[in-house]
Known about the structure:
The chain is an alpha/beta fold and 659 residues long.
Amino acid sequence: MRQLSELLAEIANMRIESLSRLEAVQHRLMLDGLLNEFHQALIQDGDIPNLLELWMPRLLKAFHANTMGVQIGTLACVGGPGQRRGSTHQILDEVAARLDSQDRSPHEGMWDDLLSSKKHALDFLPEAAGLLLAQRYEEDIIFCFMTRQEVVREVRWGGEPVKEIVSLPDGRVRLEPRRSFAVWQQSVRGHSDPWLETDAEALQNLLRMLSEVNKLQVNRKMRETLHWRAHHDHLTGLYNRRAMEDEVSRRLEDSQYDSALMLLDLDHFKKINDTYGHETGDLVLQQLSLRLKAVMREFDLLARLGGDEFMLLLQIPHPHAATALTFAERLHQAVATPFAIRGQHFRLGISVGIAIPPGHGRTVSELLRHADLALYQAKAQGRCRSVVFELAMAANQRDHYLLERDLDEAVERNQLSLVFQPKVDLISRKVVGLEALVRWNHPTRGQSSPNAFIPIAEHSDQIIRIDRWVMRRAIAEQAHWRSHGLAKLPIAINLSIADILSPNLVDYLAGLLEEYGVPPAALEIEVTESCFMRQLDQTRSVLRALNKAGVATSLDDFGTGFSSLSYLRQLPLQCLKIDQSFTQNMLQDPNAEKLTQAIVAMGNALKMTVVAEGVESREQMNWLLAHGCHIGQGYFFSPPVPPEDVHQVIERIEVRLSA
């Protein structure tokens, strides 16, 4: 009988083990099927947070769990009906504290007794009696977890309970059960159903799926971001040059000529950057882009090419200059309202250059070049206006380019020369100084005055080389005259803003004076008002350094720019030169006469030497003398002459004026 009972027990155990294995296989198949289905949904949709929310009930049911959490990079999710006290990140941080940061291989941790010891409990998941934690390493540790609630079972007793004999103090004996339902219930409190290897493998697979899809999403977003950055301007969000040119090229290649290409430039934008800073300038550009977009239609294209230059492709059914100009007027109106930036109000305008295909070009490069020429013309005409390209502009541009190219070689080929114009003391009738003026002896164009090529030199960055050549040549001539016992008259030299702001001007000039043995008092530096308006503080510093070195400084062409007493009184100047436009018109124009008289009075009040340029008649000389201007310069005395004729001309002037 005993052998039979043992055999029956063994058979029963085998049946129980087989049933357990069958349940485990069914559980694995169920989890695998669910995860495969979830994986397909992930691949098709890709929205991990949304899918996790939709699939959370099914996933929790499959794992017999009540809370699920995921941490993959910036993806942070916790869900389920389980009780939670903290935020998502607090919960994830608490669970992450159980990760093994030393082990970089995928693995799992399993706990089924979190509530049996405070040391194990999760404060932010108070119901969690069991925890299954899967982790992987991808640049940083990522993880996924499930929690289970405490197990509560109803117990039914069968048969007689085992008794224990308990001796009482009075000697009597009492029988009590060794184990009761209350005692058993207490022994299982704080535990959950144990986690299986099947659960752990499934959770690790779930983490892998989420990680792979998340990586695909991150890479896709990164590619989209990089693509956007490659084709858009980061400041305004508009197309950049590359994207705009590609799109315009595509349309032109399809012979879509129903358009006009416009280049827009914000007038005097540099003053905002210089005065209020680039941050304010950026805010102006952002506001401008919004205003331009408000005027556009959905099929028009707008791009920021860089700085304050924008490009607009206007779609019009029948391209015509009048239609394009009408639309350009809407752009001007959009910009006319003052820009309100950080409590400041800026009134700005735009200049617009327009090119219309196919007459003005069949490629982007041709249209851009011609629109740029039209834009240049709009600025030359006074800014804040629109100009349509004309063929004559291209011829002028070609001539400008050839002149710029030849100017680049003028210094090396010794094509520059100096001429000198005397300055006369109107009281003593003596020559008291000279102004050095540069000339360009072009091999085919002949001699050119500074007005013809200095602006080109300033725009092409050749002006410093020319300025330095003028300084050296003028000081060399001064040294030559002194060595031959000729009149020691100071020479005035005009310098550009580029040279004034160059870092070594004062040292370079001091080196030349020392090299040729010429005293600093034999030199005078003339600058225009534009220098002060662009870089007042730096210009003032340079002029003070020149004065300290013994070189006098003078303000040239006064009255033609932003003449202001507020900055004039701050500058270390010894001389003020009245522009020739006042001198030449003062006897015919009462307003010019009053202004000239005011400039002379102002210069004298500031104790500055006042020089009148453009004196062409004795009547002008006499008027200047009568009104307190004591030095004149102009063709009445002498035109500019070569260095070898200077002293003969000086003698003739003094003889003629003394007669």
